[in-house]
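FORM 7B: Structural annotation worksheet

SECTION A. Query
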Amino acid sequence: MITSHYRDLEVWQLAMRLAHAAYDCSNLFPPIERYVLLPQLRRAALSVPSNIAEGQGRAHTGEFLSFLSTARGSLQELETDLIFAHEREYLSDDQLASPMELADHVSRKLSRLRQKLTAEKPRPTRR
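SECTION B. Predicted structure
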C-alpha cells in the first residue's frame, strides 16, 4: 500500500488543514446558523480527513478506494456549504478564497491517490 500510516499521507495533512480552515470560517456565522449550517459544514469538513484515515486503515485497496470516494463526496459537500455561506454573506470573498483553494488542492491529491491505487490494484484472474 501507499504508506504505513494515514498521517504520512499528504492528502490527509491537507484535508486536516482544510478542516481547521472550515472550522475557522464557521466561527464567523451568525447565531441563527448554530443548529443547521454550522454543524453541517463542520461534519463535512471533518469527514474528509476522517474517511481518508479510515480507508487507509482498511485491509484491501478496494475498501480504501471506496473511502476516498466518500471523502471526495464530503469535500464537495463542504465546498457547497462554504459557497452557500458566502452567498448568504456570512463569508467575504477573501474569507472564502483560502478554504476553496485548499479544497481544490485536496481534490487534486485525492484524484492522484485514487489513480495510483487503481493502477496498483490487482486485477482478478479469468478462468
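SECTION C. Observations
The mean pLDDT is 94. The chain has one domain: 6-120.

SECTION D. Sign-off
Analyst initials: ____
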